[in-house]
Amino acid sequence: MADRQAVFQGSAPLSSFTRLEELVADCEGELQVRLEFGVHEEGIRQLTGEAKGIVKVQCQRCLDLMDFALDFQFHIGFAMHDEMATSIPRDLDPIVIRPDEQPNLQDLIEDDLLLAIPEFVSHPPDQCSVTTEFGDPETAEKVESDTSKENPFSVLEQLKDPGKQ
Fold it and tell me: What are the tens digits of pLDDT across the range 3-57?
């Protein structure tokens, strides 16, 4: 396929990505995928592509469900053995496949799909049902009053310079 520079475009149901179920609240919907096979400028067979979709995840701040937009690209370089994988250009993620193997495209896409979802997802602060405030006036007053107290380490200052008493 790489030699023919094949291009595929379509959709895949999110429910077909079995490892994804552990990270999201709902696997309904589809992932729009575009795959382009080709040969890298250094002669390495490659697969580049992009995927877009929306998954339901749980906000880690308020624990409500929210939509998370997936939009990621992947660049994979195919190597025939581990030694070849170490020499693949840095702009490609190396995948070792044996000459008699066919790569499982769904697994390759799912690997990048899992990496595209952050470990801790939350609503933007203005959309989350849990509100937090920093710089609260009452807290600022309390901090100011706490700083006016005598420093408990002032005794050490006298030990440092005994003639200063």
Answer: 566 788 999 998 898 898 888 888 888 999 999 988 888 888 898 999 999 999 9
Classify burial at 49, counting beta carbons within 10 Å of its beta carbon; exposed 0-12, middle 13-18, buried 19 or more.
buried
pLDDT in tens, 105-118: 888 889 988 988 88
Distances (CA, A) of 121 to 47, 62, 63: 29, 10, 10
Give me the domain span that covers residue 91. 7-116
CB 33 within 8 A of CB 51: yes
Q: What is the pTM of this model?
A: 0.65
| 3-state secondary structure (DSSP) of residue 130 | coil
Q: What's the structural domain count of the chain?
A: 1
Instruction: Look at residue 138 and tell me if it is in a domain.
Output: no
